[in-house]
Amino acid sequence: LSRASRDMIESLNLGQIVQGLGKKILGASDRYDSRDSGAKLQLQVYGIINEQQVDQTRKRVRRGMRGAVERGTSTGKQAIGYKLQPLCDENGRPACGKDGAPLNVSVVDQDTRQHVELAFKLYGEDHWSGTRIAKHFNKLQINGKGSWNGSSIYQMLRRHQYIGIRVYNQTTSRKDPYTGKIRTIQNDRSEWLFNRNRDWQIIPWKLWKKVQRRLLEAQSASPSFGKKRGVNKRLFARTLFDGTLFCGCCGRELSLGRSAGRYKQAACPNGCESRHGCTFKGSKSIRIIDQALLSYLRDN
Predict the structure, then answer these.
(1) Is the pTM of this model over 0.85?
(2) DSSP one-letter string for the chain
(3) Which pLDDT does position 232 carry in this prediction?
């Protein structure tokens, strides 16, 4: 049963689904049989045990990541501008951890650091917007991909590692048991882990401060600054044909490019930033779309 689910609630839901379908569950190693009289109680016990094992594994992983942060070794995928390099001991041989796996450290990648410097220069000194930088990066195929957008550019501009400070354990991902979606929760600042290394610094301090100041000014000037996010449009449609309009170039669902009162317009998010080769950069009034489609439906 541990292969079917690692959560007690999911185990119980699985039992109800299988029972409703008129099927049965047979455990290969734990000899579980859903036809037995005590199958429901046995299912709950297995669910508790499996969930406890997952919790213990999660604690061990976090403890290992904390040790890696204290050693200064890598704990995951590297951001643009950095690469992994094997950690060597005093004899010049690759160092290994307790499990025998080789240890890696993060170092500056001289081939991609110029892309980071370009993004900071365009935003801080030339006053380009994040969307304009994303279009430029997609055109040049920076880092071998054409899926840059404004959010990824702003995430790059806020990364502290480019001034030699790396922050770990800022957020925690949790799965909503009802919707199945992954929610990101901000951890308390006392739980953050800091690792400072001047060898990581790519951006000068003055340029970093200039960029952060402009980011803060742009965030404060936004109409949605300090407001709660709206409800999910999948649950509550904001337009008459919401969820049924798609881009003819890349096939992505059209979203509201402008949602001010009666002047709503539909646009393709990929085309606005030239992502994935989409060339549709225009927009269409929601009022015109509604009139055209309703007239066709009425006539037919």
Answers:
(1) no
(2) -TTT-SSHHHHHHHHHHHHHTT---B-TTT--BTTSTTHHHHHHHHHHHHHHHHHHHHHHHHHHHHHHHHHT---SPPPTTEEEEE-B-TTSPBPB-TTSPBPEEEEE-TTTHHHHHHHHHHHHTS---HHHHHHHHHHHTGGG-S---HHHHHHHHT-GGGGTEEEE--EEEEE-TTT--EEEEEPPGGG-EEEE-GGG--S-HHHHHHHHHHHHHHHHHSTTTTPPP---TTTS-SSTTTTS-B-TTT-PBPEEEE-STT--EEE-HHHHTTGGG-----EEEHHHHHHHHHHHHHH-
(3) 46
